[in-house]
Design a protein that fits this description.
The protein is mainly α. The chain has 2 helices and no strands. It has one domain. About 5% of the residues are buried.
């Protein structure tokens, strides 16, 4: 249950960073460093979540299931 909460929190942070980038892109004047910073955070969080999920499968914390025929 704790692992699921961590994944949901990271997903929420990714959405927050994406919303922040959108806000800075729409409200900003010209090239905004804040937009780039928010998108960099989003990419970093996404890569981190991907690595966390791969690591969790490798350590047996979660077990993937395939399509059942």
């Amino acid at each position: 249950m704790v692992f699921k909460s961590i994944v949901v929190a990271i997903l929420a942070a990714i959405l927050l960073a994406l919303g922040s980038a959108l806000f800075h892109m729409v409200r900003g004047r010209g090239a905004s460093g804040a937009t780039v910073r928010a998108l960099t955070w989003r990419i970093g969080l996404s890569v981190g979540l991907f690595v966390l999920l791969i690591m969790a499968v490798a350590m047996g914390w979660i077990t993937p299931h395939g399509i059942q025929p």
